[in-house]
Amino acid sequence: MKTKLTTQPSSLLADGTLVLHAPHSWSELTQDQLRYVLYLLTQGWDEWQVKTYLFCRFAGVKVLNEKKDGWLCEVKTEEGKKLRFFLELWQVREFCEEFNFIFDGKGADNRLDFIGRFKAADVELHDVPFYNYIVCDNYYQNFLQSDQSDDTPIREMAAILYLKEDGSEAGQIGCSAPEVMGVFLWFMWIKYNFSTHFPHLFKPAGNDGGYDATEAMNAQIRALTGGDITKEEIIKKADVWRALTELDAKAREAEELNKRLKKS
Questions:
Q1: Which residues touch 96 (CB under 8 Å, ≥6 apart)?
Q2: Which of 48, 76, 103 is the last residue of a domain?
């Protein structure tokens, strides 16, 4: 992000451009930055207010005075000098758009590495048991279908997605509101990521909006076991990526069969 200045301090580019640095994606956020984003998202503020706070914090901009047509600002340069400049309102709006990724509806491909002493599972859920995923999905869907005033389902997810030192599930975990938000956005992205990797399996919900999480979970297990209950425990413990790859293949085969039947 850049803004033209009328003066040319030695710490600026030769053309008088001040370069302001800020993250452009979830994955670029440091853990401290991520916590700050999650904090803002739990304050009930509107989108532009959140973006404005993010711009000022991450770009190191201190607003000295607000005027009708813009802001008088100050930043500290790499040389440690304080530099004042004026930002017009259109520039502020343009800079704030750098944070559109926060609100794109795809969730966050980044998560808090730790909640308390518990460490997060792999961000893409590699090496996570298939059963753990479908239990989390159950909680996630139940939360989405509720009025979302009770975040207990997301806290239950956190106890599965965050692990003890020995790799076992936390069991119980205390989460602040920003940490709950972090778990929710992380799992939202997991669902989005899986939909891009397994397009035959993850289809848009039906128009009726109905979703029986328990039945969906049992159907996935039945599909992988072929009805052989002796295989159920093995399937539950299988890596989620391996299980979803197989389910996606089965879904693709079913689609192809249906197309052939319609043509015949």
A1: 48, 51, 52, 54, 55
A2: 103
Residues 6+ apart with CB under 8 A from 51: 96, 97, 99, 100, 102
Tally of domains in the chain: 2
Rounded average pLDDT over 130-153: 93
Q: Using CA atoms, how far apart are residues 212 and 134, in angstroms rounded to an integer?
A: 12
Neighbouring-strand partners of residue 62: 74
Q: Kindly state the average pLDDT of the residues 210-225.
A: 66
* Residue range(s) defining the domain that contains residue 37: 2-103
Of 7-16, 106-115, 223-232, 249-258, the poorest mean pLDDT is in: 7-16
Cβ–Cβ under 8 Å, residues 51 and 59? no
At position 20, the amino acid (one-letter code) is L
For residues 87 and 125, membership in a common domain is answered with no
Among residues 206, 217, 212, the alpha carbon closest in space to that of 145 is found at 212
The residue assigned the tokens 């128009």 is 207
| Residue % of the chain over a pLDDT of 90 | 57
Residue recorded with tokens 């710490």 = 11
pLDDT at 126: 96
Q: What is the pLDDT of residues 173-202, one digit of tens each?
A: 999 999 999 999 999 999 999 999 998 888
Tell me if 123 sits within 8 A of 81, measured CB to CB. no
